[in-house]
Specification:
heterodimer; A: mainly alpha; ABC transporter involved in vitamin B12 uptake, BtuC; 15 helices; about 0% strand; globular; B: alpha/beta; Rossmann fold; six-stranded mixed sheet
Amino acid sequence: MAELLTKIKKPTRRGAVALWVVLGLVVLWLAFHIGDIVWMFGQMGGYLSYKFIQRALIVGTLVSLTAALLGVSLVLKRYSMIGDGLSHVGFGALTVAMALGFVTADALPAFLPVGLRSGIASLCGIIAAGPLPFTLVIVVLCAFALLRLSGQGGMGGDSAIALISTSALALGVVVTSMTSGMNVDVYNYMFGSILAMSDSDVWLSVILSGAVLILFVLFYPRIFAVTFDERFARATGMQAGLYNHLIALLTAVTVVIGMRMMGTLLISSLIIFPALSAMRVFDNFRAVTISAAVISVVCFLVGMTLSCVYSIPTGAGIVGVNLFVYLICSAVAGMRG
Amino acid sequence: MALMALKDVTIAFEGMVAVDRVSLNVERGDYLVVLGENGSGKSTLTRAMLGLVKPRSGSITYGEGFLKNQIGYLPQQTAAQRDFPASVEEVVLSGLTNSLGKRFFYSRAEKQRALSNMELLDVSRYRNRSYRTLSGGQQQRVLLARALCATDALLILDEPVTGLDPAATEELYDVIRDLNQRHGVAIVMVSHDLRGALRDAKHVLVMDREMDFYGTVEEYGEKYLSKAVDHG
């Protein structure tokens, strides 16, 4: 037995060495470019006085944090596709909401009473002026639907999610091309823009991430139980369905807030990447959770800086940094054997 | 009064009857093995005992102050679980959620209970090791320790030795017998492994949607095994 234990321990020690070698190489590389990096963050410091940059930093940091925490649970429960599906649904709902602004009382069917027609038209106008609440409702409803579909397991659930998400994306594109056309707004929705954050977004994201953090800490033992083994949790009397719905709800809100900065096509990476990176390197749930949160926030800040200084779309910059970190983590895990 | 009593339990999915009029008692310290082909309804029956599926008719009652959520359960492992990043201690602790009540975190006494269960199943030296680095037999013992955190009266085991090598299988049966005989934990075990499962069992249930056979191991031996010897 002792022999077996030393055999198991050895690769871990080698893994530690590998970790330091990889980290050393990265630090060395960074050291050669220290001038550029200092310049980059110096530039960023200059941008900090802009109101929209401040808003983007606050919202982005909080969204990255919540997405990472939720992501650990979603990835481990094999629900990664839900995040992806939701972002596409969000895009579809957003474009429909905005298109409603083009609805006028005259355009509605003539057989409806005039009062009803103007009522519908003004309701559409309200939705179009502030599309976020409408989008949020649709995405939350879809989150519950997707949860139910993937709960059925097997290929059925998987393909159903792909069906819903691509249909929503197609609907969004069709609606846009029939109304405003594929303009800069749509481009920003798809690939993200730091200009998109408003004051109400800041408040919403502060409240949301506060709620996620508190719920996550308080329910941590139960979240672990449901994530690790839902059947066992149910058998010992836990309301597993309730926790699944809570996680789906929080994910939906995170996706809606984050998608305008990250872009519809990229927001799900914020949920998936940090968890995957952390899982490569760490072996227990608490370490994975904490490091996913740290990785996510750091990647966001670096990606955001890159995006500001080199004028890269924000979402793509952040995903790029996340990919870089994931590759390093994989290399470390690979060498560890 | 029995620990758990099933009376005419019938379970159906979409009109298809999966379990038909099953009646049985599980007493304190009992050891019941449930045998049957794939699709004979034995897993469905255990899920009903755990309250995971509702019977269409019949009743399942729990006696002696024993509650439904105090059953320890050893489910079949999923692929996702095998490479789950969790330490052994985290996994075993998660068996205690039913004693949390309205509290959010585990108490010192509960952590102590988890530790003593790890010691009982000889996995305490792995407590900080990752679950995914353990062998199949070790993983099953960790899950048994978790199940013991949820109960001290009744364990339901769903094909516990599936995928284990012969040595690990023997070891696991010994552990289960020990829990049953020395610690008085009642066992309900669904199994494919006839010979091993019957070694320590007290009662046998053979399922074929309805109860094909229900009785003591001795009665089972007289009815089936002697015949097999004759033919063999």
